[in-house]
Every structure is written in C-alpha cells, then in structure tokens.
Amino acid sequence: MSNLRYLTAGESHGPAMLALVEGLPAGVEVDRTFIDEELRRRQGGYGRGGRQRIERDSAMLLAGVRRGRTTGAPVAIQIVNRDSRLDDDVRTPAVHRPRPGHADLAGSVKWLTDDCRDTLERASARETAARVAAGALARLVLRPFGIEVFGFVRSGLDAVSPVEASPENWRALRAVRDASEVYVPDTATDAAIVERIHRAKVERDTVGGLVEAHVFGCPIGLGSCASWEERLDARLAGAVMGIQAFKAVEIGLGRECAFRPGSQVHDPIHFDASRRDEAHLGFVRPTNNAGGLEGGMTNGMPVVVRGAMKPISTLLRGLPSIDLRTREAERSDYERSDISAIAAASVVLENVVAFEIARAFLLKFGGDTMDEVRAAVEFHRSAALSLGRGG
C-alpha cells in the first residue's frame, strides 16, 4: 500500500485544473455526484465574484476508475476552466502594479519580471478546485467506516456563530449550513455576516473570517508521536496553511490554551463500558479542548480544526503600491475578484482536512484493496477492545 498523496497542476488562465491522487486502494466506490456537489459548494457563497457565474465545475475521471470503483492505479481528475484565456488575449494585459497582500511583488522579484501576471495566475485560488476534488475522493474511503467531515463558516469580521457541533447534532447543522448564504449553521449569524459583506461591497472593501471543520468517528491512533513528520496535527496544520489567504490555524482550543492553566485545558479521561462500540472505545472525555488530537494522534474524540482566512487581497478601490517599471507611487491594479470567499474557504478546509485524515487512516489500516482495509480495521478494533481488563 503506497502513501496516499495528491498533486495538483494548472493555472487559472489555463484550459483545466488537474489532480492526481495516488495510494487509493482498489474497490473504493466513487460517487461522482458527491464530488461534483463539493465542487459546486466551493463556487458558492455570498460575496463571490463574476467568475463563479461562468465556471460550472465538474470532475472528469480520466484514469484509475473502472465501473464506478477505483482500480488501485493513480486516479486522474480534470476540472475544465471555461474561463481560460490565452497569453495573447487582449483581455489579459500585463500587471505592473502589485497588490498588497497578494503574491504579486514577491513573485515578480523571485522570477525577475516586472509583469505580475504569471505570479497572480500561479497563485490563484482557482487551484483549490483540484484540492477539493481530491479531498472529496478521499472522503469516499472514510465513509464506509463511519468517518464523516463537517465544515462551516464560524465567523465573518466580528459576527461569530455560537453553534457547537457534536456527533449528535452535526447532520441537523449541515442542513442549516446548506440553506445559508455564507455556509453558517445558524440563521442569525448568517444574516449578520451577509450584512457585513454587503457593507464591504458598498465600501469597495473585502471580508475574511474563521472557518472550521469537525471530523466525527475517527478511531484512536491515527497519526504518530514517533516522528514529527507523521504527527497528524502537524500535517493538518500544513494542509490548512497551504490554502490561499490562510494566515492561522488552530486545533481544538487553539491559542486559548496559552491563557489557561493546565487544569482548565487538559481533557479528563473516563471509561464508559456502554459506549465501547463508539470510535473512542468507551474512553470518553467531558471536554474536547485537545480537538481530538494528543501527541500527534487521534484520541477518539472529534477532530476540530479551525483556520483564519484574511480578507481578499484585491480591493475594488485599490491600495497604495508602486509601478514596478518606474518605482513611482500608484494604486494597485484590480483583477476580477471576490468581496468575500469565506464560504468557499470552508469547503476547501473541509476537504483538505478530510484528505489528511484519509491519509493517516490508510497509513494505519492500508491494504491494496478495500477488503484488506476492512479486515485491518476489524482486527485492530478487536485487539484494542481486549486490552487490559476490557477483554
């Protein structure tokens, strides 16, 4: 069984985005409708720009799937860019005034050019379409084992949702989220965030926020404490920070841990024999400040990951900048963009988190086929339940 990983390729002005997913066992049932629905959600949300009315993303499975199941070969996914533009198109002029907050200036110096165009196309969040498709595919590995991922927007500016997701209520919250214009699982905060985004649009400004993902049903022991490279919290943090415009990531209580004594941070451990059939095997916690991860490994509680997305770097009113050719002061250039993309960012977070969970799951229980994975899961569960006096 090879290590689950994916590669993405393509630029926002190119003909297509590509994802190559390696390491999937044979026999995964591929639900294209689910993958396409995740791609559709990534394009939605109040505050998105004009491109989302042009693109209609769907996943074309080019290799690695036969008769609706993975074959064990790498799975190649293509997502066509309907808004692709050729280099000589008159609609794609050179960009000489870098946008503060974007990759424009750093990329221009890195690649020694006074035209920011190549950098901004490489850095475009359009690339996240491929990551969402890869993550949605990985979730199809987890579903047969009762592992589900639920992502949503926690806040926009100072409007913060008080909702607490749990194994008991997350499906009901998902229905509320899916009816929300900004993917928030409560109606009051939905209206408040929409109002802030609308105000920013009027003021030609942009809005960021917090997005969050909860993973339910993870067995104990995914990840490792033996190697920093395989600590699951480190892998999750890296995946989230790799999303365009993300500036911070928290797991569980996150930075709040620094402001509390240990007695108010660490989650007590109890044992409830009546709950041995759940993912935690009966090792229950009254709190989940650790966010389901201790020592780089899952502990049976829901995994909770939160990311902070900064406001979009492209402002309609521009920001103070310079012309790279003359070094003279100018306003930054405007490229077609969003007022807010926090709703889309929550979908990306949800799926990159799912991919890392699936990767850790297959490292623990991997086999060449799904039948081998099931056998490994069943063996480990049986052995874990027999530990000590629990047998």
Report a brief summary of the structure:
With about 400 residues, this protein is of the alpha+beta class. It contains nine helices and 17 strands.
Strand order, sheet with most strands: 8-7-9-15-10
Distance between the termini: 31 Å
Supply the number of helical segments: 9
Q: Please describe the biggest sheet, giving its number of strands, its sense, and whether it closes into a barrel.
A: 5 strands, antiparallel
Tell me the series of helices and strands, N- to C-terminal.
EEHEEEEHHHEEHHEHEEEEEEEEHH
Indicate the percent of residues in helices.
25-40%
State the total count of DSSP E strands: 17
**Radius of gyration, taken over Cα atoms and rounded to an integer in Å:** 22 Å
Mean of all residue-level pLDDT scores = 93
Helix/sheet category:
alpha+beta
Principal-axes geometry comes out as globular
Notes on the protein architecture:
With 391 residues, the chain is of the alpha+beta class. It has nine helices and 17 strands. The chain has helices at residues 32-42, 104-110, 117-122, 128-142, 170-179, 187-202, 232-241, 342-365, 370-385; strands at residues 5-9, 16-22, 60-63, 65-66, 69-70, 75-80, 148-156, 159-160, 209-216, 246-251, 270-271, 283-284, 293-294, 297-298, 303-309, 320-322, 329-331. Strands 8-7-9-15-10 form a five-stranded antiparallel sheet. It has a four-stranded antiparallel sheet with strand order 1-2-6-3, with helices on one face. Strands 4-5 form a two-stranded antiparallel sheet. A hairpin with a 2-residue loop joins strand 13 (293-294) and strand 14. The protein is globular. The mean pLDDT is 93.
